[in-house]
Design goal:
The chain is mostly beta strands and about 675 residues long. It has two domains: about 325 residues; about 210 residues. It is about 0% helix and about 40% strand. It contains one helix and 70 strands. A twelve-stranded mixed β-sheet has the order 6-9-12-15-18-21-24-27-30-37-33-34, with no helix packed on it. It has an eleven-stranded parallel β-sheet with strand order 3-5-8-11-14-17-20-23-26-29-32, with no helix packed on it. A hairpin with a 4-residue loop joins strand 1 and strand 2. The N terminus is likely disordered.
Length: about 675
Amino acid sequence: MDGVTSIEVYGYATPSANANSSIAYMAWDEDSKTVKEVEGGCAEYTVVTTGTTTWEDGVWYVVEETVTITSRIDVSGTANLILCDGATLTAEKGIEVSSGNTLNVYAQSAGENMGAIVATADGGAAGIGGNYDAGGTITINGGIVTAFGSFGAAGIGGSYAAGGDVNIYGGVITANGGESGAGIGGGDSGNGGNVNIHGGTVTANGGEDASGIGGGYSGDGGNVNIYGGIITANGGEYGAGIGGGQNNTGGNVNIYGGTVTANGGKAASGIGGGEIGNGGDVNVYGGYVYATAGEGAVAIGAGSGSNAHGTLTVAEGYVVYGGTSADPTTVIEKSNNDYARSRYMIVTVPETEPVSYMAWDEGSKTVKEVEGGCADYTVVTTGTTTWKNGVWYVVEESVTISSRITVNGTVNLILSDGATLTAEEGIEVSSGNTLNVYAQSTGENMGAIVATGGENAAGIGSGYAGNGGDVNIHGGVITVNGGEYGAGIGGGDGDTGGGNGGNVKIYGGVITATGGFVAAGIGGGYFGNGGNVNIYGGVITANGGKYASGIGGGKGGNGGNVNIHGGVITANGGKGGTGIGAGDEGSSNGALTVAEGYVVYGGTSANPTTVIEKSDNDYARSRYMIVTVPEPEPVSYMAWDEDSKTVKEVEGGCAEYTVVTTGTTT
């Protein structure tokens, strides 16, 4: 057309996309081991339309609404795809992610309204993956993803070749292999590649002669690592649930967590070899595993026609059950470094009896047994050095851990009666994290912790330059020593910053906390302030290092806030420090409040007997301090004496009593 200029623009976002604010999406967070929203979202992206068939390297694509693409989508380089809530991408010819290319898929939420992909291939291609070649790298963080492979190809993975790398962190994924193709993994004659599943709900259905997860026809299982999620893997006829296709071995399968159900096809194993395939190496370190084989095969091991079952290794505490019918209950004992195999097998930790523990009850203002106890817990062993958010840990018997224990998130620890946890490098509870400690009783047989901080670290608390987190002690015999410059309980060395004590609550138990050189027993490390200390019960002895307080600041640190609601407290400062308050060179002793009826004693020598009266809403501080309820003088009273038939004074009177006040109504 004369006088008309034609302009074609490639690879840029549509104007409507540029006009929008950032698009939210969720991705795997390695620290928390969960899928969580990414701060800031994605600000620069291209909206997927019916013509968006080539996805380019480095570009972010967004499915904003339901869209159907009739030709095969080709991923070139590394492409990122965000599925908006409620939106569906229908790829009628599938999505090509061949070897050397990468597709990362994200959703905006984790509920029923997640965005979706439906990818259906033909002509020998994978639903998502290769096209007569190996699959590339496919990472799914979320979304409802349904993939159908065509003849010779996997649902997600390779086409007449290996599966490539498939990583699943979340979402609801259903992968269906075409004939001779795995659900997730290799195509015809292709090995499984590398499949890593961290979460989500995954259903993988192999085509005829192929595995659910692993090898296609005549392909071995590759490497399958499962860390979490709910996984159901169904082998096609003659293919393993997880492992090899027909005529090939199981590869390497490692299960660290999750709930795994693996069903072998005809004559194939649940986990291991396809028909006439050897078993490979299967390691179960965690989770729950239920495996079912086709007739003539074993649940974990070789397919029919082979007796080479490979190796089966299970973690300490796990039990292998086996039998000839579903839901077997017969325990298979390890013999000659192996397990007998059967058609149905379960690998799990047997259900345990709940563990009792005692916790502070706000209604009665006492530590009392918690009804029902704790039924779901992890037993502490010498290798239990990383304590995870939301997990309950139980010290069943005495155990020594030689490296520093790290608390991530909120962790609960039960000390069984008679058991001692020795933490030779202490327990790291830094700011933002919480450790709750419980005992099973209040007597001499209470469980115990003996913790010594590493260099510049608190016995229980933060490390160098860190502030202490939240430590709540409901019971136990707790003996804690700070490392050099670290508090017993609280902050680490704060000479370059940090070192503050965090938040410490003590409800019961017998606690002895000793600070390292120039650090508080409970509170701040070197140059650290005391933080917040609340004591409701227990017998507490806090010894400060040189120039530091017993409870409060390290050398150069202020006292913080100390509130005593109950218990018996002995606080001994180091030279120049206070029993409760600031360390030497600290500018403020902070606040000290004590419950009605409690008396503060202080002096310049241990076990002081001089009462410190409250003045100007505070207490004078001294190096040695004790806070307790004085033992009352016995109260005399008279009662009927049957022998003399008179009312007479009772010898010794009453030594333990409550004084009636205007509020004593119950």
